[in-house]
Write a structure and sequence with these properties.
The protein is of the alpha/beta class and 345 residues long. The chain has 2 domains: 5-116 and 319-339, ATPase, nucleotide binding domain (Nucleotidyltransferase, domain 5, 2-Layer Sandwich); 133-315, Hexokinase, domain 1 (3-Layer(aba) Sandwich). Helix content is 37%, strand content 21%. Strand 2 and strand 3 (41-50) form a beta hairpin.
């Protein structure tokens, strides 16, 4: 990379690929820099693809470009679950291994930028007016300060947006933190999952698959046979009150999520608000509203009066990941290359 203004103008005018790759779906957009709004991208074409339909990430990206790109695309920004270590993306929830050098070569990219998928969502928080988020609890407004985005999906992700002149996002692996039980029932669940004790990551319970784990575990504790096989089936049964174990699983999930999010909001002093991301939570917004989420978000904390002033909103994932990734890419075009450690050389 060469750090000078002419390159910035030339490269930013070219279409680039922004990919937001999760454990289940990949959201892809062919984008270009906005002429009207600095540091923002305009979507030329957008598509959501199922990861399971493709043999590799290169195959998925190639399929999108073959269908949607008019000419060659030489620049890509990739937001994906996990973290970059030694030229590979280390992850628990993606459909395939990702070797960045091989990916760059297979697609013929001149540049490949990589960031965590929730880091990309964090950059989307720079423009909250575009998020179309629904208030779950707290005041309808927020002070200036750090913003937290958390999302249970295939895994459990989180990132923090720190407002400054350009905006900076801290990626986290919060989903890998030990699950903290607060109630006796949660302790029973942990004892069932880890009868000899040991490490149980939060995302094992606070994710889409985690909700299914909760349901099956409660069936065991209650002497019942589990018959629901998807997280969506569990939430539907809880909504319709057709399965007591599903109802208990959703109640426990929402309450424990409130405690987890409250811990993070307290850790990062998220004065700017909390955003719960993803289609999973958006689809169960009514269940969250009538749950113990808000109670556990505040419960028993010395900084409760601070947390009472922190709004918690639920937003769809949608195009926010590709928009945040695009912002990261466009922000970085004019920076010294040593400042972009996650660009493959």
């Amino acid at each position: 990379m060469v750090n000078h203004h002419g390159r910035h103008e030339r490269v930013s005018a070219q279409p680039f690929l922004a990919a937001d790759v999760g454990g289940t779906h990949a959201r892809l957009a062919l984008m270009r820099a906005s002429r009207a709004q600095e540091r923002k991208g305009e979507v030329i074409t957008y598509r959501r693809l199922a990861c399971s339909d493709h043999a590799s990430l290169a195959d998925l990206l190639r399929s999108f470009l073959k269908t949607d790109a008019i000419g060659p695309v030489r620049h890509c920004v990739l937001a994906c679950a996990g973290q970059v270590v030694g030229g590979e993306v280390i992850h628990d929830n993606l459909a395939w291994p990702i070797d960045l050098s091989g990916l760059r070569g297979a697609l013929g990219f001149d540049e490949l930028f990589v960031l965590n998928d929730f880091e990309a969502l964090g950059y989307a928080l720079a423009d909250v007016d575009r998020l179309d988020a629904r208030l779950l609890c707290g005041p309808d407004g927020a002070a200036t300060g750090p913003k937290l985005v958390v999302g249970p999906g295939t895994g459990l992700g989180a990132a923090v947006y720190l407002p400054n002149q350009s905006g900076f996002v801290m990626a986290t692996e919060a989903g890998q933190m030990d699950f903290a039980a607060q109630t006796l029932r949660e302790r029973e669940v942990l004892a069932c999952l880890a009868p000899e004790g040991g490490y149980v990551p939060s995302e094992r319970l606070l994710s889409g698959p985690g909700l299914l784990t909760l349901y099956r575990t409660l069936c065991v504790l209650n002497g019942a046979s589990p018959w629901l096989v998807t997280p969506e089936a569990v939430t539907d049964a809880a909504r319709q009150r057709t399965d007591a174990n599903a109802s208990e699983a959703v109640d426990l999930f929402c309450a424990a999520l409130g405690g987890f999010v409250g811990n993070l909001a307290m850790d990062f002093m998220a004065r700017g608000g909390v955003y719960l991301a993803g289609g999973f939570l958006s689809a169960m917004f009514d269940l969250l509203q009538r749950s113990e989420f808000a109670t556990r978000f505040l419960h028993g904390r010395s900084v409760r009066i601070f947390l009472e002033h922190v709004p918690v909103r639920v937003m769809e994932h949608g195009q926010h990941g590709v928009q945040g990734a695009a912002r990261y890419y466009l922000d970085g075009l004019g920076l010294d290359p040593m400042a972009r450690k996650r660009v493959t050389e």
